[in-house]
Amino acid sequence: MAVMKFGGTSVGNARAMQQAIDLVVREKKNGAPLAVLSACSGITNKLVRLAEASGRSALDEALVIAAEVRQHHLTIADELITTPAVKSEVTSKIGEYVSKLEMLARGVDIVGELTERSKDMFFSFGELLSTTVFAAAMKEQGHIAEWIDVRRVMITDDNFGFARPLSEVCEANTSAIIRPLLEAGTIVVTQGYIGATTSGRTTTLGRGGSDFSAALFGAWLGDNAIQIWTDVDGVMTCDPRLVPEARSIRIMTFSEAAELAYLGAKVLHPDTIAPAVEKNIPVYVLNTWHPDAKGTLITDDPERLAGMSYGGLVKSIAVKKGQCIINIRSNRMLGRYGFMTELFGAFSRYGVSIEMISSSEVSVSVTVDDKCFSEELLQDLRALGQVDIEHAVATVSVVGDNLRMAKGVAGRIFSSLRNVNLRMISQGSSEINVGFVVEEMDVNEAVNTLHHEFFSGEETAGIFEKPAGNP
Ligand code: ADP
Ligand code: ASP
Ligand code: MG
Q1: Closest CA to 6 of 32, 39, 28
Q2: Atom of ligand 1 nearest to the CA of 10
């Protein structure tokens, strides 16, 4: 009884959907799985643009995007489904969803205000549409499968845009609605990322949240595995888009994976690991296009970790672009207390999360997401001291459980980067990461240099594998 999550590229077109269907069917010999799907790749971004256009009364633009969304799903359905009756049923379901989407756009256009609540309603259509086509194709191909509206199961608080599940209710719903179907041998197809409040309002768990949905279902079902199917050979030593030499990591601990996700490795949503840790369920990160490649196993099982013990120091390098450094300098810090409380208070008032921090006696530097930065926050910070801002920087973090005991890692990191201009340095208090900040234009050089330093020796043999590369 596995939970199988397929990301946007794994359901983005008819070929990908067929591949995902084949994987779900292959898994059935171990018991019917729960398939948790994302929206087709690019669709949530389109829905974001559609919502924004409606909010600024650009209704024509919004309706053009709605038509693109409709066409995208009709094309997949057309390529994937052959029986005329099934095709016409799916076509009309797609039509119904897109009509609702257009109605929503018109409503927001008339009111002239786009709320967090209506945004979640807009964004939910991506997953509703992808799962509708997927489930219909499965059934047409003769598989016993049922589509479930996850909003009957994933009940959340009303923090729209970043909703958190009400675990007890969700676990009971999972046992009442999903488990009996799986036990009867029915494959269940449902949506990641979305949920609903107790009063039935649609919510979302935050961008990239389908990984989190899958992990939650894994924990509520007490399953033997959570499988995250994506477009790379598992978690890699660095984002392969930045480092062509990146290798796929065979095994890592929960804390390494959580740290890496939090520090910017997009392959896993940062919240994915917590539910798996709670019930000690292994998480596999696998490549939809290379289902037989080993991918990555994330576990704390000592036997499995010992079987692949690793003498090296670093497991992976994570990068977060789009950051800014805020430096606050004030003599008021010197030998006084309370300054940090005031400083953090300012960030918390504007809901801005601090990513990296480093301090001296008279100054504090923090990094925050460049998009969250506001003039109001700046004004409050200026009341505390002199403020300097540096935009367009990136945090780079080196992660590995072995860093905890290792000597000389910082020396190796920073001497290898002697030609890169480091804007800030920080060691994570978890002791399993060392991070620094560079200008965005220096990211490529910094990560490729570091990667070469830590992943080109023999110490890396066995646990890292050259990815097969996508077809
Ligand atoms: P999905 O749609 O399947 O959820 P994402 O785009 O969210 O996929 O995540 C997969 C992408 O994450 C990869 O294509 C890769 O570019 C990026 N990525 C960033 N860091 C890493 C890493 N350390 N290992 C693997 N992929 C990474
Ligand atoms: N479709 C959502 C997004 O693009 C959720 C996900 O893919 O995980 O953010
Ligand atoms: Mg993702």
Answers
A1: 39
A2: 3
Task: Compute the distance between CA of residue 69 and CA of residue 150 in angstroms, rounded to an integer.
Answer: 21
Task: State the distance from the centre of ligand 2 to the C-alpha of 103, rounded, in angstroms.
Answer: 23
Q: Whose CA is nearest to atom 6 of ligand 2?
A: 208
Q: CB-based contacts of 40: which residues, under 8 Å, 6+ apart?
A: 8, 11, 12, 13, 72, 73, 76, 126, 129, 130
Spatial separation of the C-alpha atoms in residues 345 and 349, rounded to whole Å: 6
For the chain, the structural domain boundaries read 2-231, 316-455
Considering the entire predicted model, what is its pTM? 0.94
pLDDT tens for each residue of 189-237: 999 999 999 999 999 999 999 999 999 999 999 978 999 999 999 999 9
CA separation for the pair 170, 163 (Å, rounded): 13
At the topology level, CATH places domain 2-231 in Carbamate kinase (3.40.1160)
The residue ranges of DSSP E strands in 176-224, in sequence order, are: 187-191, 194-197, 202-204
Work out which ligand 1 atom sits closest to the CA atom of 228. Answer: 3
Residue 36: nearest ligand to its CA? Answer: 2
From the CA of 269, how far away is ligand 3's center (Å)? Answer: 6
Domain spanning 316-455, CATH class: alpha beta
In the DSSP assignment, the letter for residue 404 is: G
